[in-house]
């Protein structure tokens, strides 16, 4: 896929997960895409926990994930993105670790889409329970989790078709100003 094509095809599909094994090579390609993301002053503060153990996934789903996210129990892989804020920049009270992790996760989501795998970024997590289950140090903050799976049926394109047909996005004229706030083209 071309980059813009991949961006257009990416969809969050947590209800379309297959328990089918995801190859280690694909997981590593996705993580490498995350590693190559830009970060403020090249801090690369992101850290990822790849959960493949079914018992650990069940613990996360039952104790740490919100009820809405319980459907990811079928996923063969869950990736947890974290960062230690003190490993990153804070300028003028603005913590950059969230921005940096988001850049890495977007690379990961796009790489997964390109490889035909399903993702769904989730933030509805009990951070304390997550940290306990995965032995994450107190100073490290959870940012986002995503299941990683093949689609339950058919190809990625088939699985995403319905979701993409329902996708709504604001018009660029609602989102973009030219030369100053409020100045439309």
What does this structure look like?
This protein has one domain (3-153): 3-Layer(aba) Sandwich (NADH Oxidase). The strands form 2 sheets. It has a 3-stranded antiparallel β-sheet with strand order 1-2-5, with helices on both faces. A two-stranded antiparallel ribbon has the order 3-4. The two termini are 32 Å apart. It has helices at 3-9, 24-35, 54-64, 97-114, 127-134, 156-166, 172-175; strands spanning 46-51, 77-83, 90-91, 94-95, 141-148. Helices cover 38% and strands 14% of the residues. Strand 3 (90-91) and strand 4 (94-95) form a beta hairpin. It is globular.
Quick structural summary:
The protein is built from seven helices and five strands; from the N terminus they run H-H-E-H-E-E-E-H-H-E-H-H. The chain has 185 residues and is α+β, with helices and mostly antiparallel strands. It has a single domain, classed as NADH Oxidase (3-Layer(aba) Sandwich), CATH 3.40.109.10.
SSE blueprint:
Blueprint lengths: L2 H7 L14 H12 L10 E6 L2 H11 L12 E7 L6 E2 L2 E2 L1 H18 L12 H8 L6 E8 L7 H11 L5 H4 L10
Antiparallel strand pairs: 1-2, 2-5, 3-4
Helix pairs in contact: 1-4, 2-4, 3-5
